[in-house]
Structure of SMI1/KNR4 family protein:
Amino acid sequence: MKIAPFTERWNDGERDWRYVKDARQDIERWEGETGLRLPAGYRDFMLRFNGGRVYPRMFHGPQAPWPPGSARAPRPTVASYVDLIFDWACVESHWRGETYGEGVPPQHLVFADTPGPVQLLMALDAQHHGQIVTWHHSANAWGTDGNDTVHFQASDFGSFLKSLVDEDGSDHDAWHLPIYDRLAREFEV
């Protein structure tokens, strides 16, 4: 698997691993304040890379659900891709409700996005701790106006990363930037 850095000021020329902030103190502070502990695999990944762009990045997930009250059958899964695994500052911003307000399911971290309406979340409650789910983002309060469903994707962060594919190699050029030849790092899950 490969990962390339993504920095807060990437478009301003900060295109190197040295610009990736060390997230250790912020994660430890957050864990202390919330009383929650990040799942080990995800925590290790964030301490090592603090987010980034992974390859391969394709996964199969559900399409947007039919409108509430519809008698139609569930839609089939479709291929999507992880656009960006957020850095800790962005994860924490989502945790505080700065993007979706009360729309995010309780006890879930928004940790990555796709190019469409799907966000990738990690469950932090005791029963589902570490599970990865997809969520069709909404600013409607969780449990209201059709914002009441998440879809299981993987049992943990490592399993999710291992499930990412590029079966025919066709996504590599979409992921790859010439600068990645110098910056992308190989890593084992």
Remarks:
- The chain has one domain: 2-186.
